[in-house]
């Protein structure tokens, strides 16, 4: 009986290990699978919050405590990155939208861009940074700090730029964010205490594979209607996709240049985080009650989020190799270290 059970559990473990070994290729494939199977999106849409919780739990579970201590000794860097992603980005987006007249020409798209700018970094950002060999702990620390501020900054910018277009309750959003963070941190702590950090490191590949499956669930929940919209209005849908790529890589490039003095490897990690906005929390906060254009743009943002890590792998490897050679790489980026 025990051998049968071992065989039964060994099969999914091998499958997860194989999937985790695909790295950013699997992350890139997620978006196409999600778009190709619309019924999966319909089935998973009610579970967006749960998917976000699991992604953050995996990130907390795999945090590098040594690198975390290192970054906490340099709070100025985390504070600067947090101010940029929570205040700088939405302020610039709102000002540009008003100057260009987007607020009156396309209210649905303006709402989408403002919600994107106001959102905290995506919960999967540390895991994606780890897949790319970047400093995932710096990303995680900044993500937690910025997520804690979002209830206040989102309310502020909603009042400044959105008016009656959207009503966000800071207490309700703050309670939701606090609950997700506290519960995921507690669950991750229990897992680390039960199995140990060494066991988590040994099972890096299957954990990566499980993380990719959760990414698929989240992407499918958002992208369920993309295929039908592409058939119904192809030019508009492709235009939104192009815009999502342009905004993603603009945020990535600007952030990397702003923080280049800390080293391009760490700056790229921050750029990856800033360009991946957690639209899932905004969907949860609004209960999905958004205009069709806003919802469609949110779906289009999944393309750069999942494809960019694969596209950026050569640059990430070059930056990481340069940092290791010069001795400036963080612990989590050095060869032989597993997050």
Give the key terms.
339 residues; mainly alpha; Na+/H+ antiporter like fold; 19 helices; 81% helix; transmembrane helix
Compact overview of the structure:
The chain is mostly helical. 81% of the residues lie in helices and 0% in strands. It has one domain (43-333): Na+/H+ antiporter like fold (Up-down Bundle).
Task: Note down, in words, how this protein is organized.
This protein is mostly helical. The protein has a single domain, classed as Na+/H+ antiporter like fold (Up-down Bundle), CATH 1.20.1530. The protein has helices at 2-21, 24-36, 38-44, 48-61, 65-72, 75-100, 102-105, 107-118, 125-131, 136-162, 170-195, 197-202, 204-222, 226-232, 234-258, 264-275, 279-286, 292-300, 302-326. The chain is globular, with a radius of gyration of 20 Å. Mean pLDDT is 81; it is low at 331-339.
Would you count the extended β strands for me? 0
* CATH structural architecture: Up-down Bundle
* Cα-to-Cα separation, first versus last residue: 35 Å
**How much helix, percentage-wise, in residues?**
over 70%
Give the H and E element order.
Answer: HHHHHHHHHHHHHHHHHHH
Secondary structure elements and their pairing?
Elements: H1 2-21, H2 24-36, H3 38-44, H4 48-61, H5 65-72, H6 75-100, H7 102-105, H8 107-118, H9 125-131, H10 136-162, H11 170-195, H12 197-202, H13 204-222, H14 226-232, H15 234-258, H16 264-275, H17 279-286, H18 292-300, H19 302-326
Transmembrane segments: 75-97, 109-131, 138-161, 173-195, 207-224, 236-259
Keywords: Membrane, Transmembrane, Transmembrane helix
Protein name: Na+-dependent transporter
């Amino acid at each position: 009986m025990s051998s049968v059970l071992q065989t039964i559990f060994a099969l999914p473990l091998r499958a997860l290990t194989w999937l985790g070994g695909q790295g950013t290729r699997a992350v890139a494939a997620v978006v196409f699978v999600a778009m190709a199977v619309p019924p999966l999106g319909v089935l998973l849409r009610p579970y967006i919050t749960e998917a976000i919780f699991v992604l953050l739990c995996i990130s907390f579970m795999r945090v590098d405590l040594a690198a975390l201590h290192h970054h906490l000794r340099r709070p100025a860097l985390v504070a600067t990155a947090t101010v940029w992603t929570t205040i700088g980005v939405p302020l610039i987006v709102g000002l540009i939208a008003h100057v260009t007249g987007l607020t009156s020409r396309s209210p649905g798209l303006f709402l989408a861009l403002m919600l994107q700018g106001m959102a905290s970094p995506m919960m999967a950002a540390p895991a994606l940074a780890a897949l790319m060999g970047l400093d995932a702990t710096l990303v995680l620390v900044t993500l937690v700090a910025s997520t804690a501020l979002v209830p206040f900054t989102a309310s502020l910018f909603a009042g400044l730029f959105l008016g009656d277009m959207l009503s966000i309750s800071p207490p309700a959003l703050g309670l939701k964010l606090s609950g997700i963070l506290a519960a995921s941190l507690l669950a991750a702590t229990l897992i680390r205490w039960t199995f140990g950090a060494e066991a988590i490191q040994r099972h890096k590949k299957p954990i990566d594979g499980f993380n990719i499956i959760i990414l698929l669930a989240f992407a499918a929940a958002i992208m369920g209607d993309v295929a039908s919209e592409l058939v119904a209005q192809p030019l508009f849908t492709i235009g939104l996709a192009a815009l999502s790529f342009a905004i993603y890589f603009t945020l990535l490039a600007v952030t990397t240049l702003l923080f280049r003095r800390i080293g391009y490897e760490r700056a790229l990690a921050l750029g990856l985080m800033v360009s991946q906005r957690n639209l899932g929390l905004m969907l949860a906060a609004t209960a999905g009650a958004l205009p069709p254009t806003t919802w469609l743009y949110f779906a289009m943002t999944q393309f750069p989020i999942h494809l960019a890590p694969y596209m950026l792998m050569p640059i990430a490897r070059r930056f990481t190799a340069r940092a290791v050679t010069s001795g400036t790489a963080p612990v989590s980026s050095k060869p032989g270290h597993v997050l």
